[in-house]
Structures are given as C-alpha cells and as structure tokens.
Amino acid sequence: MATKAADFLIYDAQAGVYRENPEQIVRDDVEKHYWKHVCLTILKDWRLYVMLVPMLLVFLFWRYLPMYELLGCFKVPDEVKPVAEQYFSGFSYFKSLLAGTDATEFWRALRNTFLLSFYGLCFGFPMPIILALFFNEIRSNIVRSTCQVLTYLPKFMSTVVMTSLVTMLVKQGALTSGYGIISQALEALGIISQDVAYKGLLNNPDFFRVIYQVSGIWEGAGYDSIVYFAAIIAISPTSYEAAQIDGAGKMSQMRYVVLPGILSTVVIMLITRIGALLNIGYEKVLLLYNTNTYVTADVVSTFAQRKGIEGGQKGLASAAEMMNNVISMLLVISANTIARKASDTSLY
Amino acid sequence: MKRKLEISERIFKVISYTFLCLFALACLYPFLYAVSAAISGAHAVDYCEVVLFPKDIQFDAFAKMFNDNMFWNSYSNTLFLTFYGTVWALFVAILGAYALSKKRLLFRRAFNFFLVFTMLFSAGLVPQYLNYLATKDVFNAVGITDDKWLVVIAMGMAAMNIILLRNAFEGVPSEIEEAAIVDGATEFQVLRKVYIPMCKSTIATVTLFFALSRWNGYFWARQMISNSNEHPLQVFIRLRLEQYTDPEQMAGWNEVFSSDSVIYALIVCSIVPILIIYPFIQKYFAKGVNAGGVKE
Asked: Is pTM beyond 0.90 here?
C-alpha cells in the first residue's frame, strides 16, 4: 500500500498546525498487533462468529476429516492404529492400479466413467435445449404448463424408485413369467431379438450405456430445460418484432434471435458439464449394474465401493478414487476459469 | 416467398407439439403402467398382458404390503429422517449463510473457500465410509445407539444450498438491517425478523432440496443403518426388489397376484406422497435451478 504524507499528518485549521492523523495511528496499530485486533473484532461481534460454528464443525468432521483419511492410500493398512501412525507404503497402490494386478479393472472403470459422461454430453445435453425450444413454440398456456409439469415429474423420483422401475420394465423372462414390457415393445419393433429380451437387457453389457442414457434423459431432460426456457423467455419481444420487420421467418428468427439469446446459458452449461466429465453419480450405476455388465458399467466409484467397502482393500480403493477425483477437480477448475473468461458468469 | 415461410412455421409447430406430447406421455407412462400392474392379476402381469389398463383387478398386492409391518416401519423411518434431517440442515445452513453474507465478517474469503472446496473435491466413498464408521463409534460411546441420528446429523449437508442462501441474504438491502439495529434488535432478531421473512422463497427452495435429498437418500442409509427395523423406505424398496426379482426365492410363489405387483405397489406407494405435494412445491423447484448460476 502506497502511503502519502497526508495519511500521517492532517492540517488542523483552528490551531493552524499539522497533527497526526488519528485514523492512521489506528491503522498502524492494526498492522503492528494484527492478531490482537482480530480477536477484538471477533469478541465485539461474537454472535456472528457463533453462528458460523455449527456449519464449520459439520464440514470439518464429515467433509474434511475424510480427506485426512485419504492418507490411508499411502499407508500399510492397520486395523488398530490411526492413519497417521500407520507405516508408509509408498505408491504401491497407485502402481498396482496403473500398471499392476488391478490395472485392467481400473482402466476399464476409468474408461467407463469417461464414456458414460461423454455419451451423456452428446445425447443428454442437447435434449433439454430442444425441449425448451419446443416449449417456446407452444402458445397455449395450459398445454405448455401441463407438458412442463409432466416432464419435470421423473426428477422427483428417487434413484431407487427410478432404477426399480427400469429394472422391472426390462426384466428378464423366467419359466413362469414373460419379460418386461419395454423389452416386449422393442422385440415387437424388431430392434432386439427374442433371446436378448428373454435374458434381460440389464444383464447384457451392450445395452447398459443405452439404458443409462435413456433413463437419464427421461429423468432429467424436462427439469434441465427450465434453465433454457427461462433464458428464452428473457429475450425481449422487441427483438422478435425487429426481426419480423426485417422479413425474418420463423426459422430465421430461431437462428438469429433465439439461439444467440440462449447461447451464453448453453455455453455455461456445456462448460460445467465438461468440468463434471469424471464426476458421475455412483448410486444409479450401483443400482443398475450387476456382475454380467461390469465390462461397460463399472465406474471408478463403484470399483472403489466393491474393492474398498465390500472387499476390504481400503487403501487401493481410496487410491483409485483419489486419482479420479483429483483429475475431476482439475477439470472443474479449468472449466470454471474458462467460463469466467468467456462470459462474466462463473459457478463459484 | 411468404407462403413458403408459413409452411415451414406450421411444420415446426406440428413437430414441436407432437414431440412434446410424446415426451410428456413417455414421462408419465411408466407411472401409469406401475399403477396398472400393481392392481392386475398374476397371469396378466407375468405374461405382460397389461399394457396400459389393468386386467383382472385385485388389490391383494397392496393389501400384502399394507399388512407388512416393515413397510410402515420404513415409512415412519423415512419421515423421521426427512423431518429431523431437514430441520438440522436448515438450522446449520441458515446460520452459516447469514454469517457468510456479512461483508464485515473477518476471513470471509477463507470461509467461503472452505465451503466451495468441498464442492470441488470429495474424498471419495471409502474414506467417507471409514469416517462415518468412526462417527458411529463416537455416537455409540456418547449413548446415541439409534443409527438414524447419525444419518440425520452427519449426512446430507450440501455446500451448494448454503451458497444459494448466502446469495439471497446478500441481496437484502443493508439499510433495513441498520434500521433494525438502530431500533435495538440483536443479531438473532435481525436474522429472524428481517432476513428470514425477506428470503422466504429461497428458504423454501433450499428446504425442498434438503427434504428431497433426505427422502430419496439410499446408499449411506443402507451402509450405516445396521438394524433393519431402522431402514428408510428407499432401502426397504431396494431390498424387496432384490428379493422379489430373485427367481430362486420366488420359486414357490403362488398367489392371485404376481410378485412383480408387490414391487409396483411399493413404487406407487413411495411416489404418492410426492405427487400429492408436487403441485404446491413445483414452482420452488423451478426457482432453484434458475438461482443455480451463482457467483462469489
């Protein structure tokens, strides 16, 4: 901070002399006894800081302490000793994951994680935009709000209910029963063979990604379209009028008025989505996959869950997830930086 | 030229109407099917003769479920978790967000970063699992043996919701707060009488998010609640699904309703309360998304 002479001395017009600036004396004192002043400020305003305490404790205990437990992926596991006192084992778990005995499974999981989100980006991302554009076309308020309410509905279902429905709709056949209704419909349309339908689509690794994406669109597209629809509504009617006067038809209005109007929202959403490429919800995969579909369904978090929580290889599982989450964090940060540069909106 | 444009416009309109109606129906159909399948006869469900309307109507699948004590147990557990979980989360989030929204708070940026970092990086499932296990031991040592309290207190706090609240509180003009303080209000009174009433709709949105995530919570409840009497509804549904879709366990099934009907009945019962309150909370739900574009 550049200091000027006027900071130290002020002219006292009554006495006709220069005096020391009392504010600057306080400022100097704060600089000298920083922590004393911090404590005084906190004491004076203690109610505000008391309010922070529950939040800080919750996050400290259940968000930051687990990060400390991550140390376990460098240590030899020991049931009795706390993580800090366990013996250091180097990078053996990382070696094993990247090029050792667990390499095939880990790389498969990483690849599946990436592919599931990547396909989500390709198919799941444009869907809400299309929906919002179509919603905009419907002039009748009743029809539009009915459609909107219906499409938001699946978002309210829990993952368990949603996956249970999916499981039942494409379930395998048995001696005493036929297969799920969707499998039947697909078979009737000639898309899948009877044999495939009988064995159950969820037992077939070729169908896992399709089921995952379709159920994702079914669940989320309506709800995600809210953002885009809000952006479309925010476009001023005068823009349309100006375009009409210039002779623009519906398609040109779409091209030159609506799309530029929602472009910034789309860009932000896209960048966020790219940032979250390795950050996939584990619950849905966990509830939909089974031993037959590990080839295409196993993602890093389910791999960690299977190895660590069920199989007891805690260090290995932590190491796998840590690699995934560190890359994921870097992706989010860079995506956010790009978003901040590209437009003034940023997520954090 | 003009005529041609009109045609393209009409085609676009037709496409959008059909597409949206189809999509809306596709969103609705699985639920309708679930209702029909829950009340149809065994043969009709097993051989997929039910397409939309129920056949050989029976209500025994519902009756079987309603007579199941575990079902009511799990329902009351879910209500318990949702109620206390939401109250606790709101308590923590509102106080924290209020303090964070104050410009005069020392180390404000550091506290914000403390919060935001948990959105960027999570330790992962296994460290969290170990952490919850350790917490469970501590809770047991203190004398809280009911695992539901562990789920209520330790889980379900989301940094995003706190940031939504903080942004809403920041939007309250500081003059109102100053006026209240001049009138002799304390910090807590300012929060209760000025901030909370002025940010009602954001608080409603955040409450909804907390409550939904509690109602829908599955994984950690299943991992952490060891006593099966304490399981919430979602865990109950999943366990029943695993049991009823296992051909070996269902080999001796001989009832007027299919074993699938029980699952469908369960699904219907878990959705109904949400459907009842859906019209009232729908607008807050939509609001939350739009408030999502946050900034520090």
From this structure: no
